[in-house]
Amino acid sequence: MHLELIQPTADFSAEFILFMEEFQAHGESRFDHELTIARRNFDHYLDGLVENAKGVHLPPGYVPQTSFWTVMDGCTIVGTLRIRHELTPHLEIEGGHIGYNIRPTFRRRGFGTAQLALGLEKAKALGLAGVLITCDTDNIGSAKIIVKNGGRFINGVVSPNTYKPISRYWIQLMEDTERKGNDEI
Ligand SMILES: CC(C)(COP(=O)(O)OP(=O)(O)OC[C@H]1O[C@@H](n2cnc3c(N)ncnc32)[C@H](O)[C@@H]1OP(=O)(O)O)[C@@H](O)C(=O)NCCC(=O)NCCS
Questions:
Q1: Ligand 1 mean position to 86 CA, how many Å?
Q2: Residues with CB under 6 A from ligand 1
Q3: Are residues 156 and 166 in contact, defined by beta-carbon separation less than 8 angstroms?
Q4: For the sheet containing 3-6, what is the strand order?
Q5: Residues 91-98: what's their mean pLDDT?
Q6: Ligand 1 nearest-atom number relative to CA 134
Q7: DSSP states along 13-72
Q8: Domain holding 154: CATH number?
């Protein structure tokens, strides 16, 4: 089985619509808004992702964010992962640098863990020396994924939005010497 993170592309438009529809079918609303936009005009949806990555036309308070689709064996999208290039006071508490989802029918098979491992390589390639990742404290699956990828627990806070407990983790990606070398390039 081969897993890779790809840049969003129109080549996978039908597959990505199916992916988002599966969340809806399982009663998860996280892709509802994107599904509406993508169904209306997929190219426009993709343009928005490219603009987000470049930091163009961002709403106030938003930071540049690069999106990836996780593709199994060259045809099935099993998850998505987004990397925020920097943190804001809001993301410091909730959201962090990386967000991810696994398709409902592909959960509990190790994809979430493998996807984050690939995502960390992309984050490093984007120049991040380390990443903050947060999850609801009761999200056992997500917490395990983070720890299995080297996450060090920082602390627990309460979400100012949902008032739910949030766990914050740090994953170091570059040693100080490595970062210094890159900074000098
Ligand atoms: C959280 C999520 C990404 C997990 O993806 P996944 O592909 O099921 O994760 P994995 O298969 O790699 O599981 C990692 C570990 O968590 C465990 N796990 C996964 N889901 C679990 C659950 N609902 N309850 C308890 N344990 C769970 C797995 O059994 C595995 O444990 P192990 O390491 O002891 O074997 C997925 O459930 C999801 O997309 N949820 C909705 C979105 C979300 O919560 N995103 C994260 C926001 S921080």
A1: 25
A2: 100-102, 107-113, 135, 139-142, 144-145, 148
A3: yes
A4: 3-6, 65-72, 76-84, 98-102
A5: 97
A6: 48
A7: HHHHHHHHHHHHHTT--TTHHHHHHHHH-HHHHHHHHHHHHHT-SPPTT---EEEEEEEE
A8: 3.40.630.30
Mean pLDDT check: name the lowest of 64-68, 140-144, 177-181: 177-181
Residue 145 Cα to ligand 1 middle (Å): 7
Looking at the CA of residue 111, tell me the nearest atom of ligand 1: 7
Position 142: which residue type?
A: S
Residue-number span of the structural domain to which 174 is assigned? 3-184
The pair of three-digit structure tokens given for residue 161, joined into one six-digit string? 């939005």
Closest CA to 83 of 123, 50, 130, 49: 123
Q: pLDDT above 70 covers what percent of the chain?
A: 96
Q: What is the pTM of this model?
A: 0.96
pLDDT for residue 12 is more than 90: yes
- The reported pLDDT for the residue numbered 113 is 98
pLDDT of residue 180: 55
- Smallest CA separation from ligand 1 atom 45, residue: 101
Number of structural domains the chain divides into:
1
Q: What is the mean pLDDT of the chain?
A: 95
- Is the confidence at residue 185, as pLDDT, over 60? no
* Tokens 């080549």, residue located: 11
Q: Going by CA atoms, what residue is nearest to atom 42 of ligand 1?
A: 101
